[in-house]
Write a structure and sequence with these properties.
Order of helices and strands: HHHHHHHH
Strand content: under 5%
Number of helices: 8
Number of strands: 0
Largest sheet: none
Length: 179
């Protein structure tokens, strides 16, 4: 049984990294030549929070930190800032994962929305205090709103397509999970 749980975790860690690299690749594809009037949602952030809420053992903090640190370098953001904000948000959600799993989807969506918006606000304040050039505020607000709006879609795809379902306490899948 232990080998099955370990193998399943390894499969989901690999799947997460592969999805992240696909999203990085898509981000670098030339899509338009004019400056953008809107910002696309941060799908990797939403996916990270959906998996953290539903199955915290499938996505360790070191993996989250590594992927978002790589994203910071690739997207020319302040190194470690977004990674730190996402790790703090993921730990906030991870600490409430069992309570969220027993409640309604609307509460889950609300807490994830708070984590997304909180990360945006903290990153914006820190870059402002450090006098680092920032994207226009409206683009950040659009990206945050679209990320929050697409959470139900990503959560549904994770649930039905990828099989990332919340753990039911006392089930066979709960063996080895954090208590």
């Amino acid at each position: 049984m232990a080998e099955t749980v370990a193998e399943r975790r390894l499969v989901y860690w690999t799947l997460y990294v592969m999805i992240a690299f696909v999203l990085f690749f898509i981000h670098f594809l030339p899509q338009q030549t004019m400056p953008a009037q809107w910002a696309a949602p941060d799908i990797l952030l939403v996916l990270t929070y959906a998996w953290t809420v539903r199955r915290p053992e499938f996505i360790p903090l070191a993996l989250i930190a590594g992927m978002f640190l790589l994203a910071d370098f690739l997207f020319h953001r302040p190194p470690g800032l977004m990674a730190a904000c996402v790790v703090i948000g993921a730990e906030f959600l991870r600490s409430r994962a069992m309570d969220i799993g027993r409640s309604s989807f609307s509460l889950e969506w609300l807490l994830v929305s708070c984590a997304i918006a909180g990360g945006f606000v903290v990153a914006r304040i820190i870059t402002g205090l450090a006098l680092i050039p920032q994207a226009p505020l409206n683009l950040g607000l659009i990206q945050t709103a679209l990320s929050i709006a697409c959470y139900p879609i990503v959560a549904a795809l994770s649930h039905y397509v990828l099989g990332v379902r919340p753990t039911v306490r006392g089930s066979a899948e709960d063996v080895g999970a954090r208590i």
